[in-house]
Design brief:
By secondary structure, the chain is of the alpha/beta class. The chain has helices at about 5-15, 25-30, 50-55, 55-60, 65-80, 85-90, 110-115, 175-190, 205-215, 240-250, and strands at about 20-25, 100-105, 120, 130, 165, 190-195, 220-225, 235. The chain binds ligand BJW and zinc ion (ZN). Ligand BJW binds near residues 31, 54, 173 and 225.
Length: about 260
Amino acid sequence: MTNNVALEKAVKLLGNAQRVLVFTGAGVSAESGISTFRDSLTGLWEKFDPSQLATATAFRNDPALVWAWYEWRRAQVAMTRPNAAHIAIAALKQHVPELTVVTQNVDDLHERAGSKEVIHLHGNLNAPRCFACARPYPLDVSSLNKMNPDYLAPPRCHHCGGKIRPGVVWFGESLPDSEIRAAFKAAENSDLLLSVGTSGVVYPAARIPEIARECRVDIVHINTEPADIATGTILIGRAGEWLPRLLSETFGNRAALN
Ligand code: BJW
Ligand code: ZN
């Protein structure tokens, strides 16, 4: 299917949809300058593999290395802004009767673009908690270390003295129960799934397009790469270009502006 045929099909699907589920991955934030998870890292971090850092074992073995990586990423997010894809997703709310936004991302760019009640499956960079007692730890933007060192001891819990860990879901950890349930329910009950900028390899989040397919929900994928696993309508290219175009061709010229 060429991109033009796919766009025509996506416009029809979106124009007729009553309940839309938008499911996003790191690719939606790429045009804001945030590295995707499976890109090679740059600068200080180029010698590390993210999948080796995003584990409780890595934190136990070397908390200062893992904490520094997350603080570097938190600083990166704080300095950046939502892009045209986040803005178009937020604007979609005005055009479809029911919209659910589910993200695997740990940044807050959907919220900063104006999306409300975003379901975060893999947690949030701004919500660290104690590794020992799980109490939340207040951490504000001003605490970001401007030097971005590659080694930074995590702060200590005010209650029990335990080490503070990032508020994200690492490999081998369970996803928050109510969020994953809500996401699966939306995948079953929507009439269109818009899957944007995800490699779809990490479970259980990767079940979302599978469930949608099993329930005969229409699927439109937007990705710079033609993913093998993708079925449905595929728009190959950048989310920040496709989403505004899809909205304006479906709902009119100014539709993608929030
Ligand atoms: C663009 C673009 C542009 C670029 N426009 N597109 C079943 C089978 C096999 C394995 C498992 C299974 N069930 C569970 C597992 C194990 C594991 C897993 O899935 N492993 C796989 C890698 C094989 N899952 C887990 O461990 C999960 N927990 C769990 O299952 O608990 C139950 C349990 C407990 C105990 C024992 C056993 C089971 C937890 C998974 C948590 C994942 N966490 C991370 C890190 C979060 C914190 C952090 O950010 O550091 O979440 S991993 C990482 O991957 C991150 C992401 O959210 C997630 C998904 O990545 P995403 O978003 O798809 O990014 P990329 O980089 O992969 O892709 C970007 C895409 O964008 C690409 O396709 C580009 O082409 C595209 N793109 N620019 C549009 N401009
Ligand atoms: Zn504690």
